[in-house]
Amino acid sequence: MIVINKEHRVFTLHTKNTTYQMKADRHNVLIHTYYGPRVGDCDLSYLVRYADRACAPNPHEAGTDRTYSLDTLPQEYSTCGVGDFRLPSIEVEYPDGSRVADLRLTGWKVERGKYELDGLPFFRGTEGAETLRITLEDPAADLAVELAYGVFEDCDLITRSVQVRNCGSAPVRLRQCASLCLDFQRSDLDLITFDGCHMMERAPSRAPLRSGVQGVGSVRGTSSHQHNPFVVLCDREANENYGLCYGTMLLYSGNFQAQAEASQYDNVRLVMGINPYQFCWTLEPDATFTAPEAALVCSPSGLGQMSRQFHRAIREHLIQDPLRGARRPVLINNWEATYFSFDAEKLADIAKTAAPLGIELFVMDDGWFGKRDDDNSGLGDWVVNHSKLPGGLEALVPRLKELGMSFGIWIEPEMVSEDSDLYREHPDWALRIPGRVPARGRNQLVLDFSRPEVRRRVYGQIKAVLASADVSYVKWDMNRSLSDVWSAALPPQRQGEVFHRYVLGVYEMLDQLRRDFPHILIEGCAGGGGRFDAGMLYYTPQIWCSDNTDAIDRLRIQYGTSFGYPVSAMGAHVSVVPNEENGRITPMETRGVVAMSGTFGYEMDLSAVPQEEQAIIRRQTAFFKEHYDLIQQGDYYRLTDPFQNGPYTAWEQVSPDRREALVSLVFTSLRAAQPFRTLRLKGLDPQQTYQVNGGGSWPGDVLMAAGYPLPMLSGDYQSLQLYLRAL
Ligand code: DGJ
Question: Which residue minimizes the CA distance to atom 9 of ligand 1?
């Protein structure tokens, strides 16, 4: 609900459990007054106090009032060059070389429904969602900034987007345009970021804010394996169940920056948006620039609730129809089974074993096109290799259909191999800086996706392949970072636009693909989880979480990922042991327990799997399908933190009506003389009695307060699942 006090120009956004407020002050500066647990409609600007702070400049219109300074006030969208020395949100370069932005409120309006963005991902509003648009203008320049706020009451989500318009008659250059600025009048907060590397993505890293600027970002052209465009600020004592937590998520898949600055008077400013690194966008007269959307969730009751609100918002408001809520198939992917060495017969062999085990979708990974027998050639030539697949997809797909399986295919549209027809024809289509030889990554170059003709050519070929057979899934991969970023299609003064135009180009092609083939489920991937962000999720409802398929490492990866993203977004597969990445041996049961808390699949040569293991797989797929809604749509509770090196890692899904729950637990270290262990559950209905695995039953309050006694298991990496049903 949006409430506006016109007289005092107070703008209050209420969600079910939270309130967000801003106010235009006497100099028309939009100050941020509050974000926290839901309160009434009162003007909270009494929280903003004024004092004469030496060295803090005072705007001219404040006259001799030395207590009024932009450098100390909590701002809704911070400016630069006019007396606020903390993190700026926007920086504009004018023809005279000045780099400045001063913004004052000039108007506002409320709209029913949630605003939408053109060419960028966004949370989609259903009935009940509302939009507040606030216009700020620079009194000394012809520049207008519109701040848009989307309010989703049901999941405590507030979205923000920013549009900058050049209202003058000369071009200006935008050097920074953040999506989110959030000021706090306190600094006793912890910052949590999600960091890692290829094969170990999104490990939470938590530290108290210290004085100065701290943060994360990416300059790799993708959101990256190294840091995620999702960060949390929370009370120092906040944990899963307790404390005020602010989750902030950027819907963007390219260079981003999230910085928190604890400043001199114990204030904190969080700024998040496109990374200003090499960014410079020319705004012609009348042109506008739209920053990517940012989304905020404030949870007054801990990190667990914050995550559950994001999960719900992503499932219900970000994933687009017709795939929103659509059941995802259990899949078999041939990558770790065959790598590049396969033909139609090999694939058919795997499929023949997979289908009777309950696997529904066959995914043909890298190696089916052009000249592609290893990763040194072929990218860019999206034509079926008929010596591997005689008769093309037209011949292969019906064979899979006869087995009752649907078909999916791997692509990597953004890349080109130097050994490819595309590159021989258009060497200038790869990103490269004149006079320099571009760096290779996985022996491939990056196509200049900022150019429509490049996208058209690649998409044309891919579309023909997809149209040649009944394809129900596409894995969109991307296996290197962007370097040598320069576009032959843009003049020198616009080279600062290439990184962002590249991302817009990727989004445009994804959107085209979605519109042409709305029923196709697209899974995102970037060398595993190198582009796991809410921007991609808008187009690709699931993303391959990591190239690391070891069940024990995955406990950590999926745990970290779960802070922002739902189970239904996390691609997770069972693969062979010893694991190909780290050599670890884990039981098949455990690999299944971990992978089914994601979009479930297998990635191994099933035709070589012994009968006993096949029987386990059959049980796993049946169990997953039986409890699909609970696993994929249930409320997710982290019961332990795998980074604490405890004896086991446990998590739980609870159905929205709390009549069912599934607890999954993996023992990560066992010792002799095991202590008796009891696991306390969460999220149950205290009034209900639950039967566990069809056996004994206990009241919900007891299972939550006193716990469930864990059996003593022996052997490495054992696991168990407890299915609870209310009697
Ligand atoms: C990287 C992906 O993460 C893998 O799953 C696989 O698709 C390979 N690329 C194929 O080249």
Answer: 527
